[in-house]
Write a structure and sequence with these properties.
heterodimer, A: about 140 residues, mainly alpha, about 55% helix, about 5% strand, B: about 90 residues, two-stranded parallel sheet, 5 helices
Chain lengths: ~140, ~90
Amino acid sequence: MRVVGLERSLRQLHMSRWPMSSKARLRQAEAEAMAPIDLVACLVSDELTRRADRLLQRRRKQARLRDPDKTLDNFDFRFNPKMNRGLVFDLATGAFIAKTRRRFVPGSRRDRQKPLGPSYRASRHSGGLLSAILRGSRPFG
Amino acid sequence: MQSVATVPLLIVDDFGMCKLPHTAAEDRPEIVMRRYERFSTLLTSNRPVEDWGKLLGDVAAVGAMLDRLLHHGHVLKCGPRSWRTKAAAQS
């Protein structure tokens, strides 16, 4: 299959952005005499990275943050030096969300402390992070 | 109630800033209890924890709610100075 035909097929698969990286990867494969399986691995990895970036962008847009460009990197901790900087960075990883969910296995209350169950894994893979941001008086106030 | 009780991360911003409805003393602790050890809850407030009982009008219910919130929770104190005053001083 020629590149033009490949691009058309990729569009059908909703992967129209793929050729952009694949052309560079094809050149790299030729230059480095890359094994076919390594080339496929590189292409799949590129696609996964691209999808993860897009997902993050989409979620940032959905969150409608007031200052989307503000990050912890440029946060002035010196203004309030007593603030627990380590805890801020620790919580910013969001690891606590997964930790809590690890404790929860859908089912009866009695089953809560069981290790990871298949239903938990399924829910983890099928759903993204869903957050409810409640402001003002609805419903917490 | 069901969706609020089961989202993986519930963020409650500025808890206690607005006047709370009369059902607050029942539904707030209820949500926290349903989420306890199952899902994460992030709560911000500029009201001291000691005032929450008065705020919701039920000291016992707030006590039970705080007990669950703080069991595996982290408390991050921001301040005492406000970053807004810093921005105002700079401009």
